[in-house]
Design goal:
Distance between the termini: 11 Å
Number of helices: 8
Structural class: alpha/beta
Strand content: 5-15%
Low-confidence stretches: none
Shape: globular
Number of strands: 5
Strand order of the largest sheet: 2-3-1-4-5
Largest sheet: 5 strands, parallel
Order of helices and strands: EHEHHEHHEHHEH
């Protein structure tokens, strides 16, 4: 039986790393064999591209180059990690996937979503997550949290308006695909956030027994 593909998405400061660990623990406690990975990254090539894309202080990267680098990392990730795991029956838990490109390069940078969709169709060949948890919270609150983590990466140094567009794009994606997305209110305390996540996972596990 083919594995299931779960992604976690959201803007800065939404608690993706913390909640990714929670989701992993919850699934493993249910006896699910899974791998945890991330984008950009997940492979040797992907991690090198991640460094280019996220480290601040480098030479400017054009919007089209940024988008293509994201999908280059994704192509390698799918071929080397995601598809083999799913084919073997393992579940894949991923920190971001192509929804991030529609949100950040589409919403944030203003690249036409039709152009992004062409790349997604070419690279993913029909692969889509079975479940996407969207950790949503007001941008100002998220950036305040992100600032407490330490030095900001290249994306985190963008202006507030950029992240407002990213959030709007994410919410638009969720509205268009309610069968896949589950919006998690990430603004309250962590136990309340994880209670929402647990409820979603309970239903998902029941439907995929």
């Amino acid at each position: 039986m083919r594995g299931r593909f779960i992604t976690i998405e959201g803007g800065e400061g939404g608690g993706k790393s913390t909640n990714l660990a929670h989701v992993r623990a919850r699934l493993e406690s249910a006896g699910i064999e899974l791998i945890e990975t991330r984008e950009p990254g997940g492979t040797e090539l992907g991690e090198r591209l991640r460094a280019l894309l996220l480290e601040p202080g480098q030479a400017p990267i054009g919007e089209d180059a940024e988008l293509l680098l994201m999908f280059a990392a994704r192509a390698q990730h799918i071929q080397q990690v995601i598809e083999p795991a799913l084919a073997e029956g393992r579940w894949v838990l991923c920190d971001r996937f192509s929804d991030a490109s529609f949100a950040y390069q589409g919403g944030g940078r203003g690249i036409d979503k039709g152009r992004i969709a062409i790349l997604a169709e070419w690279v993913q060949r029909g692969l889509e997550p079975d479940l996407t948890l969207l950790l949503d919270l007001p941008v100002e609150q998220g950036m305040a949290r992100a600032g407490k983590r330490g030095a900001l990466d290249r994306f985190e140094q963008e202006e507030m308006a950029f992240f407002e567009r990213v959030r709007a794009a994410y919410l638009s994606l969720a509205e268009a695909q309610p069968q896949r997305f589950r919006i998690i209110d990430a603004s309250p305390a962590l136990p309340q956030v994880q209670a929402q996540i647990d409820s979603v996972l309970d239903h998902f596990l029941e439907a995929n027994r």
